[in-house]
User: Which sequence fits this backbone?
């Protein structure tokens, strides 16, 4: 199952797929629905296979077909998925139509390779006119993509079913956001800015290097670093994928596109950290279109948290996270 990419060949995306613009809908103009007949709405996100909502069928607009490959041209650029159900697509979302018939497994393989190129589109760059020219390194035979190998590789992947010992009967009081109180991030945390490290100064190693990405807990690669930030903190991207927040449990090096948040006079743990990181992520829409979440702005930024006696209710946050299924796997 080990991939040896040394013999792989480069292919232009446009030689393998025909990018086609989606129906370019605005979610705000659609009607949300919980009906079994509702249609998936796919947008420029890196989460949930790109699906952000379920909406009612729009008269006169046919949903795009299941089995299509979607690729974000903006937002979380190059987030690429195979859609398993019919769907509508939002702004700046492309369909990648294979120039020859390939299997579902080969499509999934290509989705992973395409997504791995998203670092090329940091700092507000969009993948639109350049999408066809994107070079994909793929298994090859006779200088052609080896679709059979890709299919076989995906089919042979194995995984163990994930289990949880958390009972569904154990649950704290439900979330009542309307009763939460507001707090400035600068009052809750001491905020440090990451430090620039050029590629020329990077040495391959075993230490986490955090970049302004929206996946893999922010870890872009592994390096050898003499100075590391201490763990048990939250990191937030101020540039790149702005607003992506992660709890860090291991020492790391933070790039200068990342702010590091340490608790100011209170005790943080992984459960509280994951709870607050989720709340911080909800602020992402405020920083679209190239806006940066600079340190001084972040200090004054306000989030809402569960409260008790006009103070953050840390115990509630921890107990809520522990009550969630699979929380014992954290």
Assistant:
């Amino acid at each position: 199952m080990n991939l040896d990419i040394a013999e792989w060949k480069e292919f232009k995306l446009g030689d393998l797929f025909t990018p086609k613009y989606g129906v370019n809908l605005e979610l705000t103009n659609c009607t949300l629905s919980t009906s079994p007949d509702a249609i998936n709405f796919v947008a420029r996100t890196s989460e949930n296979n790109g699906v952000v909502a379920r909406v009612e069928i729009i008269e006169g607009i046919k949903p795009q077909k299941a089995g299509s490959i979607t690729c974000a041209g903006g937002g979380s650029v190059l987030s690429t998925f195979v859609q398993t159900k019919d769907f509508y697509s939002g702004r700046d979302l492309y369909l990648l139509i294979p120039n020859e018939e390939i299997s579902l497994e080969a499509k999934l393989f290509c989705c992973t390779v395409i997504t791995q190129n998203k670092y090329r589109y940091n700092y507000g760059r969009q993948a639109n006119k350049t999408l066809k020219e994107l070079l994909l390194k793929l298994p090859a035979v006779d200088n052609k993509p080896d679709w059979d190998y890709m299919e076989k590789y995906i089919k042979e992947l194995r995984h163990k079913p994930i289990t949880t010992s958390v009972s569904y009967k154990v649950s704290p009081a439900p979330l009542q956001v309307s009763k939460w109180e507001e707090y400035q991030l600068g009052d809750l945390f001491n905020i440090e800015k990451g430090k620039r490290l050029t590629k020329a100064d990077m040495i391959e190693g075993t230490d986490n290097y955090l970049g302004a990405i929206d996946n893999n807990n922010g870890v872009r690669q592994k390096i050898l670093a003499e100075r590391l930030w201490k763990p048990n903190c939250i990191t937030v991207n101020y540039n790149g994928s702005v607003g992506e927040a992660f709890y860090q449990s291991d020492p790391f090096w933070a790039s200068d596109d990342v702010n590091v948040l340490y608790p100011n006079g209170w005790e943080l743990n992984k459960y509280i950290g994951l709870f607050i990181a989720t709340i911080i992520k909800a602020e992402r829409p405020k920083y679209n279109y190239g806006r940066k979440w600079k340190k001084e702005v972040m200090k004054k930024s306000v989030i809402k948290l569960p409260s008790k006696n006009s103070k953050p209710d840390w115990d509630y946050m921890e107990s809520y996270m522990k009550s969630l299924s699979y929380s014992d796997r954290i």
Q: What stands out?
A: The longest strand covers residues 204-210. DSSP finds seven helices and 22 strands in the chain. Residues 104-115 form the longest helix (12 residues). The helical segments are 13-16, 104-115, 147-155, 185-188, 270-281, 295-300, 314-323.
